TrEMBL record:
<dbReference type="InterPro" id="IPR033911">
    <property type="entry name" value="MetRS_core"/>
</dbReference>
<dbReference type="InterPro" id="IPR023457">
    <property type="entry name" value="Met-tRNA_synth_2"/>
</dbReference>
<comment type="similarity">
    <text>Belongs to the class-I aminoacyl-tRNA synthetase family.</text>
</comment>
<dbReference type="InterPro" id="IPR015413">
    <property type="entry name" value="Methionyl/Leucyl_tRNA_Synth"/>
</dbReference>
<keyword id="KW-0436">Ligase</keyword>
<protein>
    <recommendedName>
        <fullName>Methionine--tRNA ligase</fullName>
        <ecNumber>6.1.1.10</ecNumber>
    </recommendedName>
</protein>
<dbReference type="InterPro" id="IPR014758">
    <property type="entry name" value="Met-tRNA_synth"/>
</dbReference>
<dbReference type="GO" id="GO:0005524">
    <property type="term" value="F:ATP binding"/>
</dbReference>
<dbReference type="Pfam" id="PF09334">
    <property type="entry name" value="tRNA-synt_1g"/>
</dbReference>
<dbReference type="InterPro" id="IPR014729">
    <property type="entry name" value="Rossmann-like_a/b/a_fold"/>
</dbReference>
<feature type="domain" description="Methionyl/Leucyl tRNA synthetase">
    <location>
        <begin position="150"/>
        <end position="361"/>
    </location>
</feature>
<comment type="function">
    <text>Is required not only for elongation of protein synthesis but also for the initiation of all mRNA translation through initiator tRNA(fMet) aminoacylation.</text>
</comment>
<keyword id="KW-0648">Protein biosynthesis</keyword>
<keyword id="KW-0030">Aminoacyl-tRNA synthetase</keyword>
<keyword id="KW-0067">ATP-binding</keyword>
<keyword id="KW-0547">Nucleotide-binding</keyword>
<dbReference type="GO" id="GO:0006431">
    <property type="term" value="P:methionyl-tRNA aminoacylation"/>
</dbReference>
Length: 433
């Protein structure tokens, strides 16, 4: 049995700068990666950027830049989060990378074609540029995409389709059996309901004369890969699929994909279908975090409440930002970012709580000397053991807010223990153990 741990974030779409939602996802995945390294597991943490598609090409045009220049700048923005948020990722994959990504994406396409699950189809329908997805009338609210508040475009062209409908029953079976575990349970139920409603075949290419910014389809040079077919393959291309099979076999299947709930259908329906068609094992788990609101409102450029993680780090520092994201925003539900609550956490937990506790301990250590723990209180030892067990359990369930809360209970206990036993009094010095 492999004792390694391969974890991924979704890859960020380079049509805008990093926002607080991707910062949350990155810090969550980083905490999981660090936890598994502490357990002695060889760990590989992947993140990156998704750089193809109509939306990106239009955003570059609006910015007055070439597409390459545009995505290079934004990709660097996302890459810079490693230092800003102290992320420990091992590789940063870019879908525009012809050396590391394209071979895997094209190798996967060939497998899909060999399975007989790629076919030509004349298509006329509605396309939401914001979602980079074909939609139907029933998906719309008052004729507009509910997420992007824009009317979809009507498209008519001949594309290559993937026979996703063939795999719906098998995907549902794998999710129900737990072989493909979707966390939390509410998201599992949501995707099962969607799959059992019947999966439709999906367009997997765009005509090159309509979109020339993308990966060429092998054997069909007049077509480029549809953005989701291209993007999803990053999870295997980055570790060597199609170019370094030994490394691919070392790390795949992934232990967990960490994603936002808005892309659940792509990851828990289309991606498993692609892997089944190609004869590749499925990832073990998909962990779905919620959305982040700002002061109770949906984050929107038009409202002007977009939260820039770089600005937060500049104002408060890396560790306070990481702490708040893990402590105050539920790992598996929607969470709200509040400046007031952030500053309350900063002052109460970090400055007065941890800061004060650490100061008291170091001061006592200087006066007492040896703190080897040979005469440690049984009560203290039991509390440490209990905290470690509870934190481990919460971490294994990916409830990171509970992990941090549990650890914080130990700090509160320690502070209370010092107050109660007053080790600064000569007769009580031994109780600081």
């Amino acid at each position: 049995m492999k004792d390694n741990f391969y974890i991924t974030t979704s890859i960020a779409y380079t049509n805008a700068k990093p926002h607080i939602g991707f910062a949350l996802e990155s810090v969550q995945a980083d905490a999981m990666a660090r936890w598994n390294r502490l357990q002695g597991r060889e760990t590989f943490f992947l993140t990156g950027t998704d750089e193809h598609g109509v939306k990106i090409k239009r955003a570059a045009f609006d910015a007055g830049k070439s597409v390459k220049e545009f995505v290079d700048e934004l990709s660097d923005n996302f890459k810079g989060l490693k230092e800003a948020l102290d992320l420990s990722w091992d590789q940063f994959i870019r879908t525009s990378d012809k050396k590391n990504h394209w071979p895997g994406a094209q190798a996967l396409w060939r497998k899909l074609e060999e399975s007989g699950d790629i076919y030509w189809k004349e298509y006329k329908g509605l396309y939401c540029v914001g979602c980079e997805n074909f939609v139907t009338e029933k998906d719309l609210v008052d004729g507009k995409c509910p997420d992007h508040k824009k009317e979809p475009e009507e498209i008519e062209e001949k594309n290559l389709f993937f026979r996703l409908s063939k795999y719906g029953e098998k995907i549902a079976e794998l999710i129900k059996s737990g072989e493909l575990e979707i966390l939390p349970e509410g998201r599992r139920n949501e995707i099962l309901s969607f799959i059992e409603g019947g999966l439709e075949d999906v367009s997997f290419s765009r005509s090159k004369d309509k979109l020339d910014w993308g990966i060429p389809v092998p054997g069909h040079e007049d077509q480029v890969m549809y953005v989701w077919c291209d993007a999803l393959s990053n999870y295997i291309s980055a570790i060597g699929y199609g170019r370094d099979e030994k490394n691919f076999e070392k790390w795949w299947p992934a232990e967990i994909h960490v994603i936002g709930k808005d892309i659940l259908r792509f990851h828990a329906a289309i991606w498993p279908g692609m892997l089944l068609a190609a004869g590749i094992p499925l990832p073990k788990k998909i962990f779905v975090h919620g959305f982040v609101t700002a002061e109770g409102e949906k984050i929107s450029k038009s409202i002007g409440n977009v939260i820039d993680p770089y600005e937060l780090v500049e104002k408060y520092g890396t560790d306070p930002v990481r702490y708040y994201l893990l402590r105050d925003l539920p790992s598996d539900e929607d969470g709200d970012f509040s400046t007031k609550r952030f500053e309350e956490r900063y002052n109460a937990d970090l400055a007065n709580g941890l800061g004060n506790f650490a100061s008291r301990i170091t001061t006592l250590a200087e006066s007492v000397g040896d703190l080897s723990g040979q005469n440690a209180s049984e009560e203290v030892l039991q509390k440490i053991k209990q905290t470690a067990e509870q934190a481990a359990l919460a971490s294994e369930k990916f409830k990171l807010h509970e992990t941090v809360s549990t650890i914080w209970s130990l700090i509160k206990f320690g502070d209370g223990y010092i107050n109660e036993n007053k080790p600064w009094e000569d007769s009580n010095k031994e109780v600081i153990y």
